[in-house]
């Protein structure tokens, strides 16, 4: 049986880390918090996002602070997401796998309504047998979404490899009994990814190659 890849979007297929850092710093500026460098962001980032803010603030944000920061982040981010390109090699890898008869899908915590047109504008929507974004405003990680995603696909977890840029992608994979490969081009440092205990790679081409060996 052939392998099925479940791709993450932000920081994996979409090269948007600069927009994410800018949006995070815009949100922090609302509360007078210290601006983050890319290195510090990658070392501290975690899901759910309020936990990330807790690492930086020394406490969880209040409901009012969260509402303010979350609104600022998304307003800034979506203004810039339009100008973010795909990660180098992503379009070619997706096309090659599809041409070879392999299946792949996209599962993201980006809001579903915003995700679909953005994927389509990059000309890769037809590469996936299914595209799922976050259906609600929850700040939960990806594990529950991964369960529903695989149920909708009717693909056995033992055939699945998840490719993402965050520890949460590996956690979601383990939650359903799938494998994972983590990419260093997004939200986490290599050191923080290596602590997760799954293969860590520096390119999407290498991620696909490793995924082929895992299942």
Automatic annotation (TrEMBL):
Q: Which Pfam families match?
A: Hydrolase (PF00702)
InterPro entries this protein is in?
HAD-like_hydrolase_sf, HAD-like_sf, HAD_sf, PGP-like_dom2
- Superkingdom is Bacteria
Q: Which named protein is this? A: Phosphatase
